[in-house]
Structures
1.
Amino acid sequence: MRRRILTGLPIDVAEMQHAILTEIHAAFQADQRRTMQHVINATGVLLHTNLGRAPLADKAVERMRQAVAYTNLELELESGKRSRRGARVCELLAELAGAEDAVVVNNCAAATMLVLNCIASAKEVIVSRGQLVEIGGGFRLPEVFESANVRLREVGTTNRTYVRDYEAAISEMTGAILRVHRSNFFQTGFVAEPTIEELASIRRPKSLPVIDDLGSGCVVDLAPLGLCEPTVQNSVQKGADLCLFSGDKLFGGPQCGIVVGKKIWMEQLRGTPFMRALRADKLTLAALEATTEIHLAGRSVQQLPVYQMLARRPEDIRAQCARVINELTRIAERDHFQPPAMRILECQSEIGGGSMPGVHLSSFGICVECESPENLAADLRSGAPAILCRLTQDRLLLDLRTVLPHEVDDLLLGLSGNISSRFSRQETPLAPQVPPSNPDSTTEIS
Ligand SMILES: *Cc1c(COP(=O)(O)O)cnc(C)c1O
């Protein structure tokens, strides 16, 4: 604009003002869309890392609200004395896991670094070649070992590692035995690896720690839901000295890394300067405390969103799809726009977040017919509220397993806002081609 003024050519001030305001407004809007906000997850991926993994339980949110102002983070109210940060939540975690003690850090990656560096610095840690994993985001176990100043002692082969491989590798240089749960891929066929129980039984001396990196941190028996995932309790019971897992995967809580195990090791972890650098903040500890209470009370499926989503029956999800379609059709009639054709499709939800690869849950989604699914998906993402959907085989699909019933109103708001502007825009030119609304087309299952 300045350049235009400097050319000396005549300018229309009002027009220029308008153009500047329009640009400022657009830039402001674009910035507002980048603020952290609630988004509707209709991708069907339960623990979506890009969407913040586990949604928190109401109780966890309430406990965080309690902690936003001053809170008894490191103070014992009864005595007025200083207390250890997160002392209570660590006690609860230990109780839940059946372990002696617990430590909480920023995430499971931090827990891995802390444990290796603190327990086995300058020593060797024995790991099976079948478990030298990359977690994602460049967190690769061999490199983690290097950063943690631990020497990697690989044993076995990619597909089979035996107890005797570990036995042969143990020496005075050994600092620990590590087992890593293959949480983000699976092996099948000619495969074998020892159990934690076997690893705990062969170590010499008996004080040599066995570390179990469980990653997804399941503390609930998922067998009734037809799923199979190793539990933290089982790992502790079978003899792991330190178990590591994430707070925001199957534990269903805030992002954090949880270590449970023997008191001597937990005290050693607490004593390192690293602990101070990796410690969790008060909001995380508050949410974790409430989440752990829910597990301890046996109310996981009732109160934790991740478990509510896991436990939803496909027929209930299908009924919710039908309700959303009916409601959208009603809104379209009221607001005089032509709704797009929508169908209910059977689909598969995923756990995500690097948990239970290859596990699919039967679900149902709404397929919105449109010329450009990509464009509609982009519009839905930038709407208010933002809606994230799935694009498969040139189709736009809203998997409603990950949209809990209390989010349906928000979903309708986002969908109808977008669809009304989009489809009324096209209404005039497209009007003759729009097929008459066919009630069957809204309930078709393929
Ligand atoms: C996910 C995962 C981690 C990392 O956990 P974050 O909490 O994301 O840091 C570590 N180990 C395993 C086996 C995992 O599955």
Note: Residues 107-109, 112, 135, 180-181, 183-184, 213, 215-216, 246, 257, 354 surround pyridoxal-5'-phosphate (CB under 6 Å).
2.
Amino acid sequence: MWAQRMPSIRAIGIPIEQIIKGKSRNRVWLVLSVSFLFCFSLPYYQYSSSISSNNITATSPNDYPDSDSSKPRNLNYPYSIPNHNETHNRESNISMTASPPRVNEARRNFTDVSGGTTARVNRLSSMPICMNKKNGTDLKSKEDSCWGRYIYIHDLPNRFNNELLQNCRTLGSWVNFCPYVKNNGFGPQLKDSGGVISNKSWYRTDQFMLSVIFHNRMKKYECLTQNSSTASAIYVPFYAGLEIGRYLWGFNASVRDAAGLALVRWLREKPEWKALFGRDHFFVAGRINWDMRRDDNSVDWGSKLLNLPESKNMTMLTIESSPWARNDFAIPYPTYFHPLEENEVFEWQETVRRQERRYLFTFQGAPRPNMTYSIRNDLIDQCLVSRRHCNLVNCKTKSRICNDPVHVIRNFKNSVFCLQPPGDSFTRRSTFDSILAGCIPVFFHPGSTYIQYLWHFPKNYTKYSVFIPIDKVKNGSVSIDKVLSEIPKEYVLAMREEVIRLIPRISYARSKLRGIRDAFDISVKRILEIIEATRKKTREGKDPSNDFPEQKSWKYYLSGTTGKHEWDSYFET
Ligand SMILES: *[C@@H]1O[C@H](CO)[C@@H](O)[C@H](O)[C@H]1NC(C)=O
Ligand SMILES: *[C@@H]1O[C@H](CO)[C@@H](O)[C@H](O)[C@H]1NC(C)=O
Ligand SMILES: *[C@@H]1O[C@H](CO)[C@@H](O)[C@H](O)[C@H]1NC(C)=O
Ligand SMILES: *[C@@H]1O[C@H](CO)[C@@H](O)[C@H](O)[C@H]1NC(C)=O
Ligand SMILES: *[C@@H]1O[C@H](CO)[C@@H](O)[C@H](O)[C@H]1NC(C)=O
Ligand SMILES: *[C@@H]1O[C@H](CO)[C@@H](O)[C@H](O)[C@H]1NC(C)=O
Ligand SMILES: *[C@@H]1O[C@H](CO)[C@@H](O)[C@H](O)[C@H]1NC(C)=O
Ligand SMILES: *[C@@H]1O[C@H](CO)[C@@H](O)[C@H](O)[C@H]1NC(C)=O
Ligand SMILES: *[C@@H]1O[C@H](CO)[C@@H](O)[C@H](O)[C@H]1NC(C)=O
Ligand SMILES: *[C@@H]1O[C@H](CO)[C@@H](O)[C@H](O)[C@H]1NC(C)=O
Ligand SMILES: *[C@@H]1O[C@H](CO)[C@@H](O)[C@H](O)[C@H]1NC(C)=O
């Protein structure tokens, strides 16, 4: 299924250089305003930093922007602002041209869209005003622990979600997705790992199943409401990534766009839409944004779902967001560990903490011979030179190992650092696999993580990762072995501890864990904050727009400003 991820340069029509170096975006400075005083203090978690008696700390709250604090919140949307001076993995050798996708006979009919309008819902006035809770006299939130957190799940026609799973054979041209939709989207359970992983809660999860996993978890969310007018957010359970995955290769634009257009047509007709023009809606698209961000004037790749005017009013979650777009946010790729109880998390954290690691660094991946900007060949060469320190798993020749979660975890558990270069796009699922194995990620481009998963990772990236600029690898002026060998041992241990703390934050648990937030909890909390901010602006009669140029979204979200940034050259347009 990795082959589904992204085609060769030729098939996609957009050289990776353009993505990596920054590509010319549609300069519509559409906006959703983002600065506001944070008065939306959620009575969310009784969160404590020492959640377990045996002295294992799952996360260290103060390092993370979403940690609760007894101090009054005064954050800027949607992240707290870092110090401004601060400075994917299923691989395949399948060539796109070798296996042309077959014409999909099972194409769905998206033209029949029903959607009646019933009573007009006015959430604008029915929602409680964002309250000043400084002295804790806010009765509404005291009586109702779900206040401000209610979510309404839109009852979409089956063709937007369940039918895709029922017709799982149509989801991939080369890969049979049917096993992967099992177990609520976690895929087949992993067993008999020879002690590499624990016997429970591990699955052969496909990287594109996020929307299914998210939906199933949302069904168990503790503050669902049947009454959309009491909801703080409207969840649209459209499996956008699975849907477009069927048509990325060999279909024309109208086929690729049909479902998205049908969806927004359906949504627009609903009373829920009319209340806030969809600004309180969100959906989860489990593919990289490039697969759904076609610009009518530019590349012929993917659908234009994320660029539709309706979508721009919604909040969209993807596994890789665009640096130049304001309304999509990246959340972790699903990896293989889906705990049911917090103890499983603590046990796994302890396992990787105690793990002896034979190699200094590991690179697992396939080269990208046709991408001149790719450094994967350079990494492979460096790894071969540093044989004693580096474990090379070349997925061009070892695709079986690269596709086997137990092998992947075993390799990453056996290494102190894991190299995470860009591949077909900025990000890799491998990043999350390595964190899960307690292997400190080494990044080469800030687009691979630092500007992506701002909700889930510490804002100070030096705490959990090593950054080696891609240009230095490309021009041969840096030895990765040398850089990594020279990092002091205490610092390596501190970084690994931070990586281990990230494990629950990047995992999608099977249900809510006690005392710790998983990737789902963190995402939901952030979405509610974003939507509340928009609602507040709208209620105040302001146009939720124009706070910053959309082109500079990455910078604004990262630092809270749009001035010069040391990473400008990575995202030049
Ligand atoms: C950032 O750096 C500038 C110049 O070096 C300095 O004047 C400023 O105080 C620094 N700001 C912070 C927040 O550290
Ligand atoms: C990768 O290529 C080798 C040799 O060409 C082939 O045997 C193998 O099946 C390929 N792997 C996949 C996943 O197609
Ligand atoms: C789509 O569905 C509608 C209603 O079921 C039907 O009238 C129409 O012919 C279908 N279109 C196609 C292209 O199958
Ligand atoms: C809390 O706020 C209410 C209403 O604004 C006020 O009457 C009350 O005196 C305040 N209580 C404290 C302890 O400040
Ligand atoms: C996992 O299961 C295997 C056999 O099913 C067993 O040998 C092994 O001890 C189990 N491991 C753990 C950690 O329970
Ligand atoms: C839904 O909530 C609104 C506002 O709280 C309330 O006025 C309305 O009666 C509720 N509708 C139903 C069907 O409960
Ligand atoms: C797109 O492809 C579909 C089916 O493959 C075909 O019916 C339609 O005419 C094509 N549209 C255009 C604009 O080429
Ligand atoms: C998007 O929201 C704005 C108000 O913020 C509204 O004027 C506009 O019509 C909405 N767009 C759509 C397609 O609903
Ligand atoms: C790279 O490009 C060459 C020449 O166009 C082509 O033959 C080869 O299949 C491509 N390799 C991959 C992995 O796409
Ligand atoms: C970031 O983390 C590193 C390592 O813990 C630390 O040395 C540095 O001072 C931190 N930077 C900031 C701005 O907090
Ligand atoms: C390599 O690239 C880096 C970063 O752009 C630059 O600082 C360095 O001077 C270059 N070294 C050589 C030998 O070209």
Note: Residues 195 and 410 are 10 Å apart (CA to CA).
